[in-house]
Amino acid sequence: MIAELIAEIGPLWHERHQERLTARPRQRAVGADAKHRFVFIDRLLATLVSLRHGTTHDVLACWFGVDRSTITRAIGEVRPLLAQRGCTIAPDVRLRTLAEVIEYLGADGRTGIIDGTEIRVRRPAAGRRDRDKFVSGKTKQSAVKAMVLTDPEGRMQF
């Protein structure tokens, strides 16, 4: 299964990566850039673990020995390729309130587990009007709150 996914998505990722490299003007000789320590297979695995288990980017960064921003960028690159292939958590489901979550679960008589966490983010720019929405009262840091709904077996629902 993983080998098939790598064979199918790997060339697409490589093609997009090469397009990004050729789209910008080069300031160094070809091949003089830093070598990627975080290869495509690791990027795919990190994305799959993140989607399946809801693992934070900080934890994934520790596991793979890279920076958190590298994990965030990798997931941002690979996730659209998975979605394009048809690997989505639940297409067209966007639940914004607790009432919507309860309605979504109650429609089929399912049960679920809701878990939330705060994810640290950069402090928004000084002129941004909703800047204070990102401040966590609990940790006194800039953060966004993420909520995950899983089934009793731990599979993410959306």
Beta-strand percentage?
5-15%
Structural class: mainly alpha
Our Rg estimate from Cα atoms comes to 19 Å
- For the terminal residues, how far apart are their CA atoms? 22 Å
Morphology: globular
The strands making up the biggest β-sheet line up spatially as: 1-2
Would you report the number of β strands?
2
Number of structural domains: 2
In brief:
This protein has 158 residues and is mainly α.
What attributes does this structure have?
single chain; 158 residues; mainly alpha; two-stranded antiparallel sheet; 2 strands
What this model shows, in words?
It is a single chain. By secondary structure, this protein is mainly alpha-helical. The protein has 2 domains: 2-85; 98-150, no CATH class. It has 5 helices and 2 strands. A two-stranded antiparallel sheet has the order 1-2. Helix 2 (40-53) crosses helix 4 and helix 3 packs across helix 4 (68-85). It is globular, with a radius of gyration of 19 Å. The mean pLDDT is 78.
Map the helices and strands.
Layout: H1 2-23, H2 40-53, H3 57-64, H4 68-85, H5 98-106, E1 113-120, E2 143-150
Antiparallel strand pairs: 1-2
Helix pairs in contact: 2-4, 3-4
